[in-house]
Amino acid sequence: MSEVEARIPMFEIKDVIVEYGGEDITQCMQCGVCVATCPWKRVGSEFTIREMMHMGRMGYEGYESDDILFACTTCNHCATRCPRGVKIPNIVRVMRSMICESGAMPKNLKAVVGSINSQGNPWSQDKSKRENWAKEADVPAFTEETEYLLYVCCTSAFDSRSQKIAKSIAEMLKKAGVSFGVLSAEEKCCGESIRKIGAEDAFSALAEHNVNLFNSKGVKKIITTSPHCHYTFKNEYPAFGGEYEVYHYTEIINQLAKDGKLNFANSVAKKVIYHEPCYLGRHAQIFDAPRELMTAVPDLEVLEFDNNKNDSLCCGGGGSRIWMETEAHMRFSDAKVDEASAKEVNYVVTACPYCVVMFEDSVKTKNKDDVMAVKDISEILKESLG
Ligand code: SF4
Ligand code: SF4
């Protein structure tokens, strides 16, 4: 019997899932449509979400591996096709929260939760360094008079490569004369990933901290650098008393360009392919803004992956997978780098810091870094700013 089975009495499982907000698990008719759309199927994994749904109804018997329980990237592909409208990633979250409560969480994820609890970020970085990027970029602090809070995700706040994304976005907002500011010294991680891990207590503590902070500062409108923060502020924070207008930066920059406040005049003569972040595309249904922005850049040739928009293949980094090991032949981003390479592009372009991390890793491990680079759209736009 696995640690999970030992700690969760089987007869309780379905009832507990329903009690925790996963009531539509009772709608699952085991048709298997979800399996056919799941990216794990494409890479030959043993993980099947239909069996996980069955496990949720009947018990964890036979599932010794946490890699199965924590395989789902919460990309939402399956849920867009489920004929019974089952919100599958939410049920995965609820099942993980039961596992977390039992203490049987994968080791890598325990470290992430520990870092969140001690430093307020998942990257084991000293919390005092959160504001360094903003000081370097001379970004104003948010005050009562400021219109937008620019919330920079933990990856782009701490990681030097990812800071280029935050700095590019801040530079464009400044150039367009937008009233914006940051609260970086005081804010903490939005908590999206740890909620998907199932660490409900840690997530609630983060959400309460951030909502209290935002409300006390008079925040009404938020611009996010990451689609994951966008999802969380929009969908999870209202339950904690945080009601804000939330925008992904591509929406704001696109509107500024349409209003003539930003002019992308410099040529960027590159052939690029756009990877749709799951939390920007399928989860938020923001498909046009990033494409319109890329089209505005002179001489930029933009290709699509064969599967795009609602049918896009996940990079593999969502649902906490960014912190877990994935065997080389099963990495979704590797498969996409192969396709990008066959299409002979100069850049894989995306609009999510996690996707950038996943793709840069794949470009290196596939030895393509001499011919291909990975960019966030913000970096290309900054290069093109007239
Ligand atoms: S597609 Fe929906 S109904 Fe069919 S097995 Fe998957 S979760 Fe169940
Ligand atoms: S959310 Fe994505 S990774 Fe998870 S089961 Fe559905 S299709 Fe597979």
Question: Span between N and C termini?
Answer: 64 Å
| Structure ligands | iron/sulfur cluster
Radius of gyration (Å): 21 Å
Do you know the CATH architecture of the largest domain?
Answer: 3-Layer(aba) Sandwich
Work out the strand percent: 5-15%
Biggest β-sheet strands, sense, barrel: 4 strands, parallel
Given the helix and strand composition, which structural class is it?
alpha/beta
Task: Give me the strand/helix succession.
Answer: HHHHHHHHHHEHHEHHEHEHEHEHEHEH
Instruction: Look at the structure and give the mean pLDDT.
Output: 93
Total domain units:
3
Q: Numbering strands along the chain, what is their spatial order in the largest sheet?
A: 2-1-3-4
Could you say what the CATH topology of the largest domain is called? Rossmann fold
- Which CATH class of the largest domain is shown? Alpha Beta
What is the number of strand segments? 8
- Assembly type of the chains comes to single chain
How many individual helices?
Answer: 20
What would you say this structure looks like, in words?
By secondary structure, the protein is α/β, with parallel strands linked by helices. Helix content is 46%, strand content 8%. The chain contains 20 helices and eight strands. It has a four-stranded parallel β-sheet with strand order 2-1-3-4. Strands 6-5-7-8 form a four-stranded parallel β-sheet, with helices on both faces. It is globular and about 60 Å long. The termini are far apart. Bound molecules: iron/sulfur cluster (SF4) (2 copies). One iron/sulfur cluster is lined by residues 28-34, 50, 53, 82, 84, 86, 88.
